[in-house]
Design a protein that fits this description.
The chain is mainly alpha-helical. The chain is built from one helix and no strands. It is elongated.
């Protein structure tokens, strides 16, 4: 059985990083799901 070691990329992070996105994209990535959740709550509560 061969075992391959995991090697990190020296030029950048190995995994997806929020800090690699622009500030606007980070804000949208956080705000959009929250807005959708609030819309769902309001709709389910009969306020919309």
């Amino acid at each position: 059985m061969s075992h391959q070691t995991h090697r990190h990329n020296r030029e950048g992070p190995c995994h997806f990083s929020l800090m690699s996105l622009s500030a606007i994209k980070r804000l949208l990535l956080v705000a959009l799901p929250l807005l959708m959740l609030w819309a769902l709550v309001l709709w389910a509560g009969g306020w919309l």
